[in-house]
Amino acid sequence: MADVTGDPIVKALQEYTTCDVSDALCKLKFRNGGFLSGLTLWSPQRQEGSTKIVGPAYTVQYVPLDDPLPKHPTHYIDSVPHGAVVFVSCPPKTPNAAYGGLMSARAKAQGAVASVIDGRFRDLQEQRDLEFPIFARDVGTAPPAELLKVAAVNVPVKLQADEQDMTIQPGDYIIGDINGVVVLPKHLAELALPLMAKQVEADSAMAAAIQGGMTFTEASKKFRS
């Protein structure tokens, strides 16, 4: 994946929330509106503030040490493209952290937008001191080496959530804010953006009408039908 900072899709998505993206994906019949359950904002603040991330996914696949897949020959963090979102996939129910403060230091130096950890991460204060956005399932203290190895980068990875069957493809757009994290499949992006614009316009008109005394039912019928 090359430098992606000039991607017009990324620029356009900056205007929308994760909820806007999900609304559009629901209209396109994409499961769960692209929502990735269990991933919440930890840095630079815990579930507050105006943090917003948008970028194509640079995926990292961790597997158990006894997995037959060979260990990836180089450290994934040195190959993060400028403008990308690092998406680290960790085997479910792993107590050790799969990501730490030095990873964010390098990712930030590379120009990465954020890191999303489908598992645990550590060094929370370091992450916040860096003001680097982190979304994750939880925190931990132990490093991954005693349990895990990186098997591949930029490969499809499955979300580690029992309630969902979701796959993140390299280059899919990752959008995150205090509502959570959404994946927008790359092939649906150009279809979804006009739907987001239309929905936001309708919702803004509805909000103004409701504040002016119109009922929700009336406003919905007038602006959404």
From TrEMBL:
Pfam families: RraA-like
GO molecular function, one term: oxaloacetate decarboxylase activity
Name of the featured protein: Ribonuclease E inhibitor RraA/Dimethylmenaquinone methyltransferase
Residues at which substrate binds: G100, G101, L102, M103, R122, D123
InterPro entries referenced in this protein's UniProt entry, alphabetically: RraA/RraA-like (IPR005493), RraA/RraA-like_sf (IPR036704)
Requisite cofactors: Mg(2+)
Keyword Transferase: no
Presence of the UniProt keyword ATP-binding in the record: no
Keywords in alphabetical order: Magnesium, Metal-binding
